[in-house]
Amino acid sequence: MAANYSDDIGPMAYPMKLVSSEIVEHMMGWNIPEEHQAMVHAHWRSFPAVSKYYHFILALIYTMLMVTSLIGNGIVIWIFSTSKSLRSASNMFVINLAVFDLMMMIEMPLLIANSFYQHPIGFQLGCDIYAVLGSISGIGGAITNAVIAFDRYKTISCPLDGRINKVQASLLIVFTWFWSLPFTILPALKVWGRFVPEGFLTTCSFDYFTDDQDTKVFVACIFVWSYAIPMALICYFYSQLFGAVRLHEKMLQEQAKKMNVKSLASNKEDASKSVEIRIAKVAFTIFFMFVCGWTPYAIVTMTGAYGDRSLLSPVATMIPAVCCKIVSCIDPWVYAINHPRYRAELQKRLPWLGVREQDPDSVSTSNSVTTTQSHTPNAET
Fold first, then answer.
1. Model-level pTM?
2. CA 138 → CA 25, 243, 328, distances in Å?
3. CATH 1.20.1070.10 fits 53-352, yes or no
4. Which of 7-11, 45-49, 177-181, 342-346 has the highest mean pLDDT?
5. What is the DSSP-derived secondary structure letter of residue 40?
């Protein structure tokens, strides 16, 4: 009878002792080999290991996002690059943004596989690959949004001599890719900063937890480079754009009052202006989603480097990371909903989508003809 009891924990049946040993609560990072433990910060080891079901749910979410991004951004690149009506300098930036979004999609299969293994596949090498893709796509997408804001401002405020040509657009696109490289290459080569697992330890980003001056300066610099500067540029160009539109409308109204007419703009000019304004609204909507998607993640990184780290649980850091991926998937569908010429092309090429949009060029032409015909009897009278 004595053999059925444990000497160290008192009168407990031996089978119960076996069961109790199987329900030991693991901590984060328990399944990472000893030689790779250095890549997991001590902050994460203070949390219980995330349930495998959470990992499976995250894998399911990323699978849906991957399919959505692949279809949406793939259609954007296909239609914008092959349609004659959309093959403009301004729309080159749209294609560039879709390429960055697709690059973020490429890392999603890695996370899905990581979720089933519950650790980064390939450990440090796999972590570096994942983080490099995320860094290039995230920083590149941010500065591309700023370039799109600049293009919208130039196109609408200076419609005659302010439009960007294709050579200038190509140079700006090359600039966006160079802009994404410094804070990708430096941590990848461990010259300054490094890439480490975060959240559920199945995603990777730059290190914002190591408590030394070098890491704190790195986090501050990448925050300014990848978030603050693009955000400031976007806010400046859109504020200038809206100011120019208001000033233009005010000047037209004042001149119309002096001439005792209802409006100085022809229907064709009104239609053209309306198309440009709708495109500007699309760009502003994407900027708003960029703010909603990346601001929480920026707050997480700054909190990790300078704030109260106890607030950053695995779940609290994974939610902003998922939001960033969601934005890259939604971007192309915003164009599908609002971009007039893109919707017209969708109606032609993919009628089964049920998109209904008149060709803006044909609408403006018919309006111009109607205006001419309505003016002719007045002239004869």
1. 0.80
2. 36, 29, 9
3. yes
4. 177-181
5. S
